[in-house]
Amino acid sequence: MKSYRKELWFELPRRRQLVNVTREVEAAVQASGVREGLCLVNAMHITASVFINDDESGLHHDFEVWLEKLAPEKPHSQYRHNGAEDNADAHLKRTIMGREVVMAITEGALDLGPWEQIFYGEFDGRRRKRALVKIIGE
Amino acid sequence: MKSYRKELWFELPRRRQLVNVTREVEAAVQASGVREGLCLVNAMHITASVFINDDESGLHHDFEVWLEKLAPEKPHSQYRHNGAEDNADAHLKRTIMGREVVMAITEGALDLGPWEQIFYGEFDGRRRKRALVKIIGE
Amino acid sequence: MKSYRKELWFELPRRRQLVNVTREVEAAVQASGVREGLCLVNAMHITASVFINDDESGLHHDFEVWLEKLAPEKPHSQYRHNGAEDNADAHLKRTIMGREVVMAITEGALDLGPWEQIFYGEFDGRRRKRALVKIIGE
Q: Which residues of B touch C (CB under 8 A)?
């Protein structure tokens, strides 16, 4: 069995932002030498997400509006977590979007559907944060 | 290490529909010959879901009502993604329900709790779509 | 390839309750002898969740309030699933929080970010229920 590990680092200028990381994950699969296996990608922070969806700017706008409706940032005082912090909403938004994705690796490549793109979803940015890529297989 | 891959195809007559695929996934585990390992099942489309819950028609009705409350289909004009398309709500509904499940395989069978059933959740049907089963182990 | 399986059992006095299981999962990783691999932890019940977030009581209170807003328990009559049962809301809450987490194992330990803690989320307690830990790797 082979295994491979890589961290992807981010320092995004906005509080909330989506970054397409499909190419970086594909590069990790290549580097791993794994032909058949599984690839896990997860946020290492609890106010960020890794998820799969469409790379379409209209939809990304819809996600922003929708998440603000389901788990609004303000008023900060509505959340008990926001004593010393102001990011309770980011914990909730990441819960909806998910911490991780697990993908198949088949014949040496990510086994994705035609429109599946992998995103790092930042909900409390403006500082250095990271995601983990872990690959196992043969 | 063994690996096994299978696609499950769907062409559902309704826009939204849940299909129990537990038997098909169990058959894939049998066919794989894996005794100890992991089984990933994921939608290959970004307007569909694979999830685990109860096979009970009342609950499935509750899911439909609930998802329409959290991410309503209409009016289509409320979503920016709906320029040429009308399926933005399906991207959001699938986000809540999840893209994938990962299950343990133990002693040659899916290691599920007594009420766990695997579903393909379609949120933008009436065309051919598919889910992926990938199994690794020994 | 090595594999390891362990059940974690709960009988919680409240209907809804979060339990930090990070230490139990770490102990399973030690017991497995796996140095590089993947660790799956999933609820074996469809009214419970396994998820990763912060171990902070203010945030846990926020989760309770938020889940009651998105998928309220009462009135029980609002859900069709609640014929003989009263736990439809628990199926919905667990859907938001997620069934499972998959984590990397690197150099013999869980490969988690600094604030990542693993929780069993109970949404229909007061009876014996369990989560599954399954580890594969080398």
A: 1, 36-38, 51-54, 56-59, 61-63, 66, 70, 96-98, 101-104, 106, 111-116, 136-138
Look at residue A118 in the predicted model and tell me its pLDDT: 98
- Is this complex scored with an ipTM above 0.95? yes
Average predicted confidence (pLDDT) for chain C: 97
pLDDT (average), residues A7-29: 98
B36-41 mean pLDDT: 98
Question: Dihedral of CA B38/B18/C124/C22: which sign?
Answer: positive
pLDDT number for residue A25? 98
Q: For residue range B105-115, what is the model confidence (pLDDT) as tens digits?
A: 999 999 999 99
**Of the candidates C30, C8, C98, which has an alpha carbon nearest to the alpha carbon of residue A97?**
C98
Among C2, C3, C59, C116, the residue to mutate for chain A (most A Cβ within 10 A): C59
pLDDT of residue A67: 98
Residues 6+ apart with CB under 8 A from C75: none
The lowest-confidence range among A13-22, A105-114, B78-87, B118-127 is B78-87
Name the residue facing C54 among A46, A82, A132 (closest C-beta).
Answer: A46
Distance CA A88, CA C66 (A): 11
CA–CA distance, C38 with B99 (Å, rounded to integer): 19
* 8 Å CB contact of B62 and C88: yes
DSSP per residue over chain B, as a string? -EEEEEEEEEE-SSSSEEEE-HHHHHHHHHHHT-SSEEEEEEESSTTEEEEEE---HHHHHHHHHHHHHHS----GGG-TTTTT-S-HHHHHHHHHH-SEEEEEEETTEE---TT-EEEEEESS-SSEEEEEEEEEE-
**What angle, rounded to 10 degrees, do the helices at A88-97 and C88-97 form?**
100
For residue range B4-15, list pLDDT tens digits in order. Answer: 999 999 999 999
Write out the two tokens for C48.
Answer: 């419970």
* Chain A interface with B: residues with Cβ < 8 Å: 1, 36-38, 51-54, 56, 58-59, 61-63, 66, 70, 96-98, 101-104, 106, 111-116, 136-138
* pTM of the complete model beyond 0.95: yes
